[in-house]
Amino acid sequence: xxxxxxxxxxxxxxxxxxxxxxxxxxxxxxxxxxxxxxxxxxxxxxxxxxxxxxxxxxxxxxxxxxxxxxxxxxxxxxxxxxxxxxxxxxxxxxxxxxxxxxxxxxxxxxxxxxxxxxxxxxxxxxxxxxxxxxxxxxxxxxxxxxxxxxxxxxxxxxxxxxxxxxxxxxxxxxxxxxxxxxxxxxxxxxxxxxxxxxxxxxxxxxxxxxxxxxxxxxxxxxxxxxxxxxxxxxxxxxxxxxxxxxxxxxxxxxxxxxxxxxxxxxxxxxxxxxxxxxxxxxxxxxxxxxxxxxxxxxxxxxxxxxxxxxxxxxxxxxxxxxxxxxxxxxxxxxxxxxxxxxxxxxxxxxxxxxxxxxxxxxxxxxxxxxxxxxxxxxxxxxxxxxxxxxxxxxxxxxxxxxxxxxxxxxxxxx
Length: 414
Ligand code: NIG
Ligand code: FE
What we know:
This protein is α/β, with parallel strands linked by helices. Helix content is 38%, strand content 23%. The longest helix has 19 residues, at 196-214. It starts with a strand and ends with a strand. The model has no long low-confidence stretch (mean pLDDT 97).
């Protein structure tokens, strides 16, 4: 049993309600100016003013004490949407995009996601693990203490299972909490190019049951997009995943408005992702279905597209979460800190709304809200000491690292 006392902290944290923070709640943050907290065996044991927390010691002496010098302390960041398991970068393709070639065009020509599929299939399990472990290490530096990682660069049963094994091992062997998502429906692989429904059958009849049986994924995600999976195919895949006990996510209306947001609302998925082109009706359907919007502003930035309409979503009562989308193609972004600064500067979120999006709402979209995403008694003691006094530090020091230290389960890890 180790007991650690942290003093002189300006604590900023969303507080846990019965649902993810939506509307006015999104910006409601508990702040304690001369704050302190106790960590016992990796969990927050008390949080409050210095006198409250010292009072709760009731005669015990902490094993260690830390003076945080009045710096802002926020929950460890939760990145609820990444493709951070891959084997190679795609910089040449980035240059093609800079020269004006559309993202979906590159995929159609057999590049994009399909080129990452070739790289992942060619890599050994060990190579895939060590490449991805290095990626995770860098995300930790920018404050990510919990991370969702999708498969989806395998696109056949064996390669997808191999990716999910690697993702599971990342969870065991890195300091971060890792949430695995099966995304066999990331693209239609070459052999099924002229028979996409055949691939949907493979997904629903063989791949999903095998994934569910092995218990190696918590969610199933689908890339619902023109030339990838239609609304009808996405619905089939997601319903089958639900039947097998998996949580649901959907890449919806990223490039074109196919009605993915409405499908998310209809199916009451845990989250809908991207939503750059989501319609008003789609947004209202998400609000009705209690769907969290996982917004990925670094992807809009990297694809040079208009940002998702975060303010409209908040107004309509959709809880907004933020994520990096870290992947080798549409968005190579390791930094949740950068994502928060984009959300504030480009999507018009207040620093408090953005903080909620990058912590508690992100945790909700992963079903992890009882474990991470806020600084409250009983939660994992994951937190950041910022290089400033308020959550606005993320936007103020944009492009720099606004973080002094990163703590996971009460240990300093970066
Ligand atoms: O979220 N849109 C689909 N999937 C990723 C991109 C993956 C890739 O290009 O490798 C995304 O943008
Ligand atoms: Fe994605």
